[in-house]
Write a structure and sequence with these properties.
The chain is α+β, with helices and mostly antiparallel strands. It contains eight helices and five strands. It has helices at about 5-15, 30-45, 70-75, 80-85, 95-105, 125-135, 150-175, 180-185, and strands at about 20-25, 50-55, 60-65, 140-145, 145-150. Helix 1 crosses helix 7 (about 150-175).
Length: about 190
């Protein structure tokens, strides 16, 4: 697996700023994908970072790199659980919840809209996005790594977070290009 790709797409998670990231990567077959995920887990599990292949189709894999403890904390939020339970997930069992997400992804060509909860997006914004997709009028105040639904203070806070993510990615790519390993970059 291309380490640069992991750093480019997952630096905020590696740095502990974000619950998780997803990205696609080319593999010749599912076995190669699983071996790459196992190898990355071997390198990063001790740092609290886990890699799960979510889907493989036509030589492309969707990989999920996340912090299990952060995801567990995120899923303790009542609004997050409500959103997931409305969609048939078993809230409270992280591995089962990820397995259910994986099954949804494998059985569909599109992303389930609740996927933002697995990436650490605020439940309020995931709910706003779901409402927008249902045709309910919503005002979003800014778009960056996700759509933010709320007032001016929500927009200001989100922009700060988006700036931290962009800065993190720049720093991590720079440090990696200077020879720092992915293990050393993961906090």
């Amino acid at each position: 697996m291309n380490e640069e790709l992991v750093i480019r797409h997952c630096s905020p998670t590696l740095a502990g700023l974000k619950t998780g990231n997803m990205f696609s990567c080319s593999f010749e077959n599912p076995r190669e994908m699983c071996e790459a995920a196992c190898e990355l887990n071997h390198r990063l599990l001790s740092k609290g970072v886990c890699t799960v292949p979510l889907k493989y189709k036509d030589g492309k894999a969707l990989l999920y790199i996340y912090r299990p403890k952060k995801l567990e904390a995120d899923m303790q939020c009542c609004q997050a659980c409500e959103i997931l339970e409305e969609r048939g997930y078993c809230c409270g069992h992280i591995n089962m919840t990820i397995a259910q997400l994986r099954k949804r992804l494998q059985n569909s060509d599109s992303f389930p809209h609740e996927i933002g909860l697995f990436l650490g997006y605020p439940p309020r914004d995931v709910k706003g996005f779901l409402n927008e997709k249902k045709g309910k009028p919503c005002d979003h105040v800014c778009t960056g790594y996700w759509k933010v639904y709320g007032d001016e203070s929500d927009m200001i806070e989100a922009e700060k977070i988006f700036d931290r993510f962009r800065k993190c990615i720049r720093i991590y790519l720079d440090q990696w290009s200077k020879g720092k390993t992915i293990e050393r970059l993961t906090v």
